[in-house]
Design brief:
The chain is an all-alpha fold. The chain contains 6 helices and no strands.
């Protein structure tokens, strides 16, 4: 199944510098060179000493937790990474909603989302982001004729 796909890609990209086709060709020919940490896996037990997946690409050998404590540590790290990404996502959503509502003329919602960003992420925002949100809020407050809040 994979071979017809690789042939179709090779035919459609004849002479082009497409990374997908070049990676597939390298993987198929067996001449793939080490490119970063993903390809530094040892190849014990694999045919011709190579670690290829079903799709023809070379993958990193994964190390799995050996004990329950290692597994718990790994799960905790993954949970922390997910929570951090979720927090960043919610911050970005409020930031862009503030901008969107400002552009569409819904100044009440623009101030609401701008205040959420400043309040919930105080001390954790980049100076550039904080400055931009404060600019959005100042413009929204001016449009609402709340000039005192705009100056704060």
């Amino acid at each position: 199944m994979q071979s017809w796909y690789n042939e179709a890609i090779a035919k459609s990209n004849d002479g082009s510098d497409n990374m997908d086709s070049s990676a597939t060709e390298e993987s198929k020919s067996g001449n793939a060179k080490n490119q970063g940490s993903c390809n530094q896996a040892s190849a014990a037990g694999a045919p011709n000493g190579k670690q290829f997946g079903e799709d023809g690409f070379k993958y990193q050998n994964l190390s799995f937790p050996a004990t329950q404590d290692d597994l718990n540590d790994y799960n905790r790290e993954v949970r922390e990474q997910i929570e951090k990404k979720y927090e960043t996502l919610t911050k970005n959503v409020h930031f862009y909603l503030c901008y969107l509502f400002l552009e569409t003329g819904d100044f009440r919602n623009a101030t609401k989302h701008g205040e959420i960003v400043l309040k919930n992420y105080d001390g954790r925002l980049l100076k550039k982001t904080q400055f931009t949100v404060m600019q959005y809020l100042a413009e929204a407050y001016c449009m609402l004729e709340e000039h005192e809040k705009a100056l704060q």
